[in-house]
Amino acid sequence: MSPSDPILARLLDLHPKKIDLALDRMYRLLAALGDPQKRLPPTIHVAGTNGKGSTIAFMRAILEAAGLGVHVYTSPHLVRFNERIRLADRSGGKLVSDTALTEAFDAVETANGRSPITFFEATTAAALKLFSQHPADVLLLEVGLGGRLDATNVIDKPACAVITPISSDHVEFLGHSLEAIAREKAGILKRGAPAVFSNQDDGVRGTLEREAARLEVTPTIHGQDYLCWREGDRLIYQDESGLLDLPLPRLPGAHQTTNAGAAIAAVRAVFPHTPIQAFERGMLDATWPARLQNLGGGRLAALLPEGTEVWLDGGHNEAGARVLAQAMTERNSVTPLPLVLVYSALKSKDAEGFLRHFAGLAAQVIAVPIHGDQASWSPEELVGLAARLGLNTRAEVDVVSALRTLAAGDWRPAPRVLIAGSLYLSGEVLAANGTPPT
């Protein structure tokens, strides 16, 4: 148990809703804390539906390879809350310590009193306080949900606003059309500040461009101002400043080309003199847990027979399922192995839409629950959805049972296992495997 856990539990009780998008409570609390958001290093603010964390991972790796001190704020965490806050130091940055985190939460709790505040607002305020107290050259700040009314959107003028690919998700908060969702994401744009738009649907791109024009923002746009593609075993990036010939990213999956491109464009917009060696090192050093993470070791992987591949991904929406299915198809073209999908999802997610991408691809689907207080689909419900899609499926009580049952089966050759559907499930897996993020 972390020393900060009792404070986190108290903060959870200060608002009747888990999500209540607004900024008035945030500004009130920040003012009581001395407005730490006004004393931050240059900030690259990142919104989008998919790829935010991976884009930040690439930026962090590039900037640290260039010798810069980098603060990072991401959410949610997988195993420990500390994962959300990374503070720059001379060794390249470390997750916030329990002591520093507890002190920041104490300050937030004292400043807020019993006033209504959501958990994400309170913890974001604590993060901003920590970032304001420690020197760094840049802060990489990830939006929690949406953009316009997200608790992170208290930065007067970011060094750059990055919008990663937008798809349908959280429609109950952001709107039921892609254009409505795009307008919410575009809320992080600030008048006259630089911006980067990653690869987008045409309708989404048009919405983003209109919002940018209204705010006199001249964005750097994928397909217009920069390109990024794979050529053999190299990653090629090109913009008006020239061409970069780089190693392929360490992060697997064709979709990481899109994320790497957005990261490079943002770094070049804010730090135009970054040497090519930093971009090369960044492609090779970038890591991001539970995003096509190969569990090559650990307690869970040890349950399976030799030759079994185990992949973990927190992808949970339809767009995420599409890129995961594509990644599994690409791997199968190189090394053909039967695919087993171990799957669970929150009730708020389109489970059938996710599973549809694995029809005809997965040899078997094993449905498991998400433990804890999250409202999730039951394994039995998921079995019914998968069966309607023609998938061979069964239910298990947890991931350990699923892997043990797999190990007892007569798989020839050994299977390729993909555990996916929820970041909460990913956190359970990393904890059970003994390989939490560091």
From TrEMBL:
Pfam families: Mur_ligase_M (PF08245). It catalyses: (6S)-5,6,7,8-tetrahydrofolyl-(gamma-L-Glu)(n) + L-glutamate + ATP = (6S)-5,6,7,8-tetrahydrofolyl-(gamma-L-Glu)(n+1) + ADP + phosphate + H(+). Keywords: ATP-binding, Ligase, Magnesium, Metal-binding, Nucleotide-binding. It is an enzyme of class 6 (ligase). Its EC number is 6.3.2.17. GO terms for cellular component: cytoplasm. InterPro entries: Folylpolyglutamate_synth (IPR001645), Folylpolyglutamate_synth_CS (IPR018109), Mur-like_cat_sf (IPR036565), Mur_ligase_C_dom_sf (IPR036615), Mur_ligase_cen (IPR013221). Its cofactor is Mg(2+). Residues 46-267 form the Mur ligase central domain. GO terms for biological process: tetrahydrofolate biosynthetic process. SUPFAM superfamilies: MurD-like peptide ligases, catalytic domain, MurD-like peptide ligases, peptide-binding domain. GO terms for molecular function: ATP binding; dihydrofolate synthase activity; metal ion binding; tetrahydrofolylpolyglutamate synthase activity. Belongs to the folylpolyglutamate synthase family. This is tetrahydrofolate synthase. It comes from Rhodoblastus sphagnicola. The lineage of its organism: Bacteria, Pseudomonadati, Pseudomonadota, Alphaproteobacteria, Hyphomicrobiales.
